[in-house]
Write a structure and sequence with these properties.
This protein is mainly alpha-helical. The protein contains 16 helices and six strands. It folds into three domains: 74 residues, no CATH class; 89 residues, DNA polymerase, domain 1 (Orthogonal Bundle), CATH 1.10.150; 167 residues, hpI Integrase, Chain A (Orthogonal Bundle). A three-stranded antiparallel β-sheet has the order 1-2-3. Helix 10 crosses helix 14. The radius of gyration is 33 Å and the shape is elongated.
Length: 364
C-alpha cells in the first residue's frame, strides 16, 4: 500500500461499527425491556405503557434504573419489567372492576346514583393511570367541576372506592383521597310547603275536563310524596306488587338501613290517588325517567303557583306537618318516615304497630 493511500483509513468506520455492535444489547421480547450504556453507566429500561397526553399525542411511559455494571442491569431487568403489568392501570379500568364488585352491589340505589353522577364529573381522570395521578391532579378536577360540598364529597367518595381497590391490588400503597379538600358545607334552612300550598296541589289534581278526566294526573305523585314522606328517588322504585291498599301500606324505601324495604303507611286521603295511578301502570307506580319527572314537577309548581321548592321539600313538609300534631309520638313520626330516630332520646324506640302509623298519617 502506497504511502498516503486513503484506503488505509477505510478500516476505521468498520472498527467503530464492531465496537458499537458489542455495546448493543441483546434482542429481547416485547415488554422485557433493554439494557444500554450511557457514558460509564448501564441503564435498564422498560416501557410501562403508552398513553394519550393532554396535547392529544401518544406518549410512552418508561421505567429506568442505572447501574455501575452491565451484569447488574441485566439481572434487574425482569424485576423492572414486572412493574409494567400494574403501572398503567387507569381509573376507568378500576371503575369497571368496582361496578362488578360485591361492595358496589350492596349499595342502595341512591348511593349508586350519586356515585354515577360523580363518575361523570371525573371524566378528565378516566383514562389516567391511578399510580401516576397525584392529589393535585384530583383536586384540580374537583375544583373545576363543582364548588359545593356534596357533589365534591361524592367525587371524593368515588375516587376513594377506586383507591381502596388499587391498594388491594398492590397498585398503590395509600389512599390519596384522604388529602383532598372539600368546599365548605353551607347549611341551608330547610323549607316546607305550608297548608295553603298543599291545598293548591289538591285543587290542581282534582281539576277535570269536559268529559270528567283529570287534567293534571301527575300532581297525584306530588301528593303521594307529601303524604308518605318518601324521597323522590324512592318513588321510582315502588313496585305495584308491593302496594297493599286494603291494609294501607306499601313496601319500599332506600338509603339507610332503617329506611330500606320498610312499611310505608298510606293515608286514607291518598288511597284513591294510588288506586287510580295503579290502574294505568304495568309494573311500577311511577313509570317515567328522572328527567321527565323533574320537568313535570317544575311545570306543576309553576302552574299551581306555589314556591319553587325542590321535590325533596315534600319529605320535609311531611315531617313538619306530622310534628305539628301534638298527639303523635316522636318515635312514630320517625318510623313513619323511615328514620332510625327522631332525637337521640328516641334512638332505641320500640317497634311501632302499623295501626299507630296509619292513625298518625290520617291526621294530615
Amino acid at each position: 500500500m502506497r504511502k498516503g493511500d486513503s484506503r488505509q483509513f477505510c478500516i476505521l468506520p468498520l472498527l467503530r461499527g464492531l465496537a458499537a455492535r458489542e455495546r448493543k444489547p441483546k434482542s429481547r421480547g416485547n415488554g422485557t425491556g433493554t439494557v444500554y450504556q450511557r457514558g460509564k453507566k448501564y441503564v435498564a429500561e422498560v416501557t410501562l405503557y403508552y398513553y394519550i397526553g393532554d396535547d392529544g399525542n401518544l406518549h410512552r411511559k418508561k421505567a429506568t434504573k442505572t447501574f455501575e455494571r452491565k451484569k447488574d442491569a441485566v439481572d434487574y431487568l425482569p424485576t423492572l419489567a414486572g412493574t409494567s403489568d400494574k403501572a398503567g392501570i387507569t381509573f376507568e379500568q378500576l371503575h369497571n372492576e368496582f361496578l362488578e364488585s360485591r361492595k358496589y352491589q350492596k349499595l342502595s340505589k341512591s348511593q349508586k346514583d350519586k356515585l354515577g353522577y360523580a363518575w361523570k364529573r371525573l371524566a378528565a381522570l378516566h383514562r389516567k393511570p391511578i399510580s401516576e395521578t397525584g392529589v393535585d391532579d384530583m383536586q384540580t378536577v374537583i375544583n373545576r367541576m363543582t364548588n359545593t360540598y356534596y357533589p365534591a364529597r361524592d367525587m371524593r367518595d368515588m375516587l376513594s372506592h377506586l383507591y381502596k381497590l388499587a391498594m388491594k391490588k398492590e397498585i398503590c400503597t395509600y389512599n390519596k383521597t384522604e388529602n383532598l379538600e372539600l368546599p365548605e358545607l353551607k347549611k341551608k334552612q330547610r323549607e316546607a310547603f305550608d297548608d295553603l300550598e298543599v291545598q293548591r296541589f289538591w285543587k290542581d289534581f282534582n281539576e277535570l275536563n269536559d268529559i270528567g278526566q283529570r287534567l293534571h294526573p301527575f300532581t297525584g305523585y306530588i301528593l303521594i310524596l307529601l303524604y308518605t314522606g318518601m324521597r323522590p328517588g324512592e318513588l321510582f322504585d315502588i313496585l305495584l306488587k308491593n302496594i297493599y291498599l286494603d291494609e294501607r301500606y306499601m313496601i319500599g324505601g332506600n338509603k339507610t338501613e332503617a329506611g330500606t324495604n320498610r312499611r310505608i303507611p298510606i293515608a286514607t286521603k291518598i288511597v284513591p290517588i294510588i288506586r287510580e295511578l295503579m290502574h294505568s301502570r304495568r309494573r311500577k307506580l311511577l313509570e317515567m325517567n328522572e328527567d321527565n319527572f323533574y320537568a313535570a314537577y317544575w311545570e306543576t309548581v309553576e302552574r299551581v303557583g306555589v314556591r319553587h321548592l325542590v321535590p325533596y321539600t315534600c319529605r320535609h313538609t311531611y315531617f313538619t306537618r306530622l310534628a305539628s300534631k301534638s298527639t303523635i309520638a316522636p318515635a312514630v313520626i320517625a318510623e313513619a318516615g323511615g328514620h332510625a330516630d327522631f332525637e337521640t332520646t328516641y334512638e332505641n324506640y320500640i317497634h311501632t304497630p302499623l295501626e299507630e302509623l296509619l292513625k298518625a298519617v290520617d291526621q294530615l
